Amino acid sequence: MHGSELGAGTREARFWRRLADGRIRCELCPRFCRLREGQRGLCFVRARRGDRLVLETWGRASGFCIDPVEKKPLFHFLPGTPVLSFGTAGCNLACRFCQNWDISKARDLDRLQEAATPEEIAEAAAATGCRAVAYTYNDPVIFLEYALEVAASCRARGIRNVAVTAGYVRAEPRAEFFAAMDAANIDLKAFTEAFYRRICGGHLEPVLETIAHVARETDCWLELTTLLIPGHNDSDAEIERLCAWVLEHAGADVPLHFTAFHPDWKMRDVPPTPPATLRRAREIARRVGLRFVYVGNVRDEEAESTFCPGCGARVIGRDRYRLTHWALEAEGRCRACGTRIPGVFEPRPGTWGPRRAVVDMAAFRGIPPEPAAAGLSTGDP
Known about the structure:
The protein is an alpha/beta fold. It folds into two domains: 3-55, no CATH class; 60-356, TIM Barrel (Alpha-Beta Barrel), CATH 3.20.20. Helix content is 24%, strand content 24%. The strands form six sheets. A ten-stranded mixed β-sheet has the order 16-15-14-13-12-11-9-8-22-23. Helix 8 crosses helix 9 (275-288). The chain is globular, with a radius of gyration of 21 Å.
């Protein structure tokens, strides 16, 4: 069954098998959705059509924007550079606090108004000066087939690939997906099975397996994010256990971002995270032995900056998504003492800053854009 036979936006999916009872079982993620004709998985975008499992969002996106790479958040991967970001629809978790619920919880594929082939996305990234393409806004593992084709086209053009994901994926697709990525931010939502089961509709262990795999078995640069939700995952004891696990299984040099919750989706009755909670979490993480710990969704230049673990000097200053200080030499070495800072750095940082720019993909549909910035509309930071 070819894409033309399935219709626009649809391709046969991978990682599934037929069951003896006639159902098809999706084996992309730990949910193992079992589908009869016409049914969709919880992610909504992987569906059974006839005797096949298909992906219904191939080549379709909810929109394309250029963001600062720090917004992903990635602090040790090409700082200051622009990244072409896009997502599709759906998600394979059901987080009650989802901050992108209008995309990830979408049950209407008609909202996917932007069409783009992998080659057009790579062309758009190159023409607009983006150093990477980010698969984000909703979880890219659920549109794995599309993401892998885009990633291959980008690498052919010298464009790097960034995944922003919850890491809820099985071993075989996990290995293939992260082999195609140059950097990833994995969302470690909490450190209890009860939280994942009750708040996210999933399980903790597969996420830990993904983090350990990326840290130990790939060349993909890894950073982690934990959204601290008052009364749910912000106790000192849980934060300490989480940080101790990260130290043991991912290492002291993996950047960890603690970010502030704001009431959204189905948790509007929970108050925002106090800045003091983020500072406390950062102190715990540093005491445990993690070297690069940051806060997000609040303004705190001290806790957003990178300090040399060798001499304590500030080597990268940040104020939200703007770089305010740069003291790295070649190979990411501290200008003061020569200690190498882990990450992917270039001799000079990018200068994109906090801007956000909407990209009209129609400008890249089969015709090389003139000038290079065609199709780009800059918006407010």
